[in-house]
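Supplementary Note 3. Input sequence used for the single-chain structure prediction.
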Amino acid sequence: MRIRIIFQLKNKGAFVPFHHQYLLAQLLKGILIRGGASDYADYRWFNFSGLKGQTKVSRNGLHFYSNKVTLVISSFEKPFIDYLLHQLFKFSQVEVGNLFLHPEYVEVENMPVFEESMKYICISPLVLLEPSFNDDQGKRFISPEAESFSDSLYESTLQRMGAIGKYGEEQLKDFFRFQIVPDRKYLDKIKVSQKKFARIYSMFDQDVKYEVRGYTLPFTLYAAQEVQEFLFIGGMGKLCHKGFGMIDTTDNDPGKENPRYEIPA
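The predicted structure, written as discrete structure tokens, is reproduced below.
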């Protein structure tokens, strides 16, 4: 399931670094550890977006000027979502970068109808390569138009689908069709404007800083419906529990009103 947490921004104009997934990962990790449940202290089967709201870019990062700031979180396990929300809403205020955020309410995101061809955008950076200490491998660029781009994501998807234990071995063999086709017009437009769709992002694991290359681009994915659903909920690529690889359908309206989610007492 996917939920959207709506925060009240208490200090308009405050900012976070442009690459702030590591700050969100640290916040969520702290909330889970403080809750004290050992089952969730190192839980990995969840994914989250970047912060969304009305922003302006400066040398310092992203300045938020809207009254509300949202964060999308998804997981295969509803009990995990309930636990995380229960712990989060014990706080009247949390801080991300320089933002002071008051958690107000939660909405349930509607699930799309999954087909074997789906168009997506990245709402957090997509990471292909696992980083390692004192090694630049995680920063290596792979062209989205290269076969290895799609192959790498296919391999990580099948590995994660096998690890979660919800799919049998024979079923996994049926998921051989997998192809990512990047939006050619978008890549051409980015090239002309000299903007970047592939950047270096920081992430931390056990207090060690790593750097990874993340991609943000629209693409079409050809895969089985079960694979589409798995990636929509669990994220795509590497380090999804660190806030990388969250995707959304291109026809989703972020301003659409969604039903409220009742936070467990």
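Residues 147-164 form the longest helix (18 residues). The chain has a mean pLDDT of 92.
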